[in-house]
Every structure is written in C-alpha cells, then in structure tokens.
Amino acid sequence: MSTGSDTGGGTGKAYSTEDITVTFDGGRCLHSLECVRGLPDVFHAEKRPWIDPAGAPADRVAEVIHRCPSGALRYALTGGPPEDPVHPTQVHPVEAGPLVMRGHVVITLPDGTHRHETRAALCRCGSTANVPFCDGSAGCMLTGKDWGQKS
Q: Most CB atoms within 10 A, among 9, 55, 82, 87?
C-alpha cells in the first residue's frame, strides 16, 4: 500500500512505499505517457490516486520514471542512490514543442534561485505559465512526439 501527500513548494505530490518515494509535479507534466505505457500497474491515468508505487518493484518504477522527459516524475529509493544524470548532458529540441534536456542541468528560476535537475523540458515559445518549464499552454501538440528517448 502506498500513501500520497502534498510536498508543497512546487514539487508536487509524493507517493511512498517502504522502498521508494515517487514525486509528481503536475505543472511540469507534458503527458508524454512514458509512465503509463511503461508501468500501467503503477501509473493509472483513470484512477485516483493515479500513482501506486507498490504496483511494481522499486527498481523498475525508477527505471520507468527515468524515461519521463519533463522531470515531472521523480523518485528517491529508500537507502539507495539518487538518480544518476546522463553524461554527457543531452539536449533534444522537440518539433513544435520544448527543449528536452537530460543530464546534470542547473536551471535558473525567475526568482534567481537555481535548481539542479536530471531531466527537464524547457519552453521555447515563451507562452508557459511555469517559466522556464514548458506547460503546453501555447497549444503545443505534445502527444506523439519524438522526445529524444533511446529505444
């Protein structure tokens, strides 16, 4: 059984089991569906709560979360290492969409603070309400895109 709680501070909601905590920031989600396709027993688009990390082994949940191009999904393994960034850093422009970055990325937020990220989808059109992250607010067609993932 997992539990969900609001972590505040713009980081979203956390869902925990004994082995892993999954955090979801809905303001960054671009609905690429990597999570739903990867582990439908954990990520249930039609259920609430929609994330149940008890639905698969923690290492498998972490593997699928690592596919999330926006960084909206994050994980922390209990007693395990943090997510290892891709090296070298990869930058992939999505056609009519965001700039997807993977690696050790330091992002400066509008308030001047810095966030260290391993995955992020940055707005290229300037219409986002979640600067500097893409939120699809410009009517970007974000489903069915090439997110720069390796098969």
A: 55
